[in-house]
User: What shape does this take?
Amino acid sequence: MSALPRVVLVDDHGLFRAGVRAELDGLVDIAGDAGAVGEAIELIVEAEPDVVLLDVQMPDGGGAEVIRGVAPRRPAVRFLALSVSDAPEDVISIIRAGARGYVTKTISGPELADAVHRVASGDAVFSPRLAGFVLDAFAGQEGAAPSVTDPELDQLTAREREVLRHIARGYMYKEIALRLGISAKTVEAHVSAVLRKLQLSNRHELSRWAVQRGWVE
Amino acid sequence: MVTVPETRATPLRRSRSGAVLGGVCAGLGPRMGVDPLLLRVGFVIASVAGGIGIGLYVVCWALIPADPDAAAAEGRFGRVLGRRESWQVAAGIVLLMLAALLLFRAWGIWVGDAVVWPLVLASGGGALIWRQSQGAEIVATPPEQRATPGGGAGRTRRFRLARPSLGIVALGAALVVGAALVFLWLNGALVTPNRDVTLAVFVVVAALALILAPWWLRLGRGLTEERAERIRTQERAEMAAHLHDSVLQTLALMQKRAGDPREVAALARRQERELRAWLNAGPRREPGASLAAALEASVAEIEDAHGVPVEVVAVGDRPLDEHAQALVAATREAVLNAVKFAPDAAISVYAEMQGARAEVFVRDRGPGFDLDAVPADRRGLRESVLGRMERHGGSAAIHTRPGEGTEVELVIGG
Assistant: This one.
């Protein structure tokens, strides 16, 4: 049996941290938890976990600030955003800050553990809602000539769209692979490619969300 | 969908943090969209050429209220100026006035003793009064006090009005009145009553204006601040009322129904939806006009009625025309069916709308069934969903197998 992924839990609600700890008990190896941005950065740098479960909305800059604080010092640590917020600007901005996925807090324990394992092995995790946001952000340009500088980054391929649509419809990766007649690894590759585009693209909507987030603070 | 947040119009304030002298330029600059340095150069040039710059600056300094949030930081010279006692400032202004008058005399522009000495006296008195009112304002509105919830604006204001030292103000007023009397006496208006009544009236009005202007100005400012405070209080009250009506009521209900997990989940779900809708308030899509909003509203109704969570993800949107209404009705039917046959499984609705084409997928992870094995007389779903979609030029398909859940696919306009 392979070793369980080491996880650090960051959320400003102690009750929620305790709940997640109980749900993930035995499914992952919880190395510690933190309730504030500064505390979290120190803990993660010291503990060097495989995956950080990260709340999006916290005082002092939220999850994005934790990623910014840790990434230069511990580039191998991967982040999975876990949030009650389903506002597009929150979700998109944490992904653009560097999180490898986003799931809502209503997710069940086993599903969350599965998502952690996937992130630990280098894959991206999209919830149906996130898939919907991404489709929305990249929508309305099929056939239109891309006027932007990097068309490759600013458009989704037909296959990627198809995969995202299935995720939005509530299908698991394995089921998607089965339906599209491709391997589960290929599905993962498509999702990772979408994640990369999401983080690097200059598309208008994405930038606007990110900028707006800065104004709102 | 995403709107650009409006930049809040900030009231014109003398900036203390960026101040060199009194913060007038630092306050005006950003408001006018000009570099404060340009304004400063302008003021200096206007001061050197004819002296109007000084007057203008003093007027601005008196009229524009100081930025209260940065009261601690003063200008490099203002820091020194701000700490001075009122009488010191008044003395300084009297000396400056004298210097200016002497300068004028040196240039040969001497207006005569009858004007000069009363002017010096009046400026000293005026400075005392103005200084007192300015100082009092700063003392009475510390940030902590403004932030106290429930602290009435009225109380703050009374505190501020009572604060100026009466002695100094009285001295200032006496100086101004004295200046007026001296002026009238020197011009002979007191000796011969029939000589010049208009001059006397004019002098009295000018003296009164000088004495009362600070209070009048401050009253005006106070009213503006009071209005802003009232708006803030109102917003707070509205928010409290909303939380009370919705969240607290729901929490009370949930405590009562603690024995029924399904009911509790349904209550929590409904409250969550309401709160989200309230938090994301702004350009809300009206259920009567938008397909996405109509779908969400329709699914929310089912959630409430059956206490089963249904996740809705919508991409794009389109107007709610006749065909779209048929799509909403068919979706509703499909979700109800899923709720009936798979109440404990996750149910999700995904809608994608682009141009005239709209697709909806209703999926549950329930037991599924064998489509061919459904008896002909029990095809409610098939009739109501398939028939409805076909009548509106759309199509419907059901994908299911025992053990694999069910997915209903609805398409119009494509």
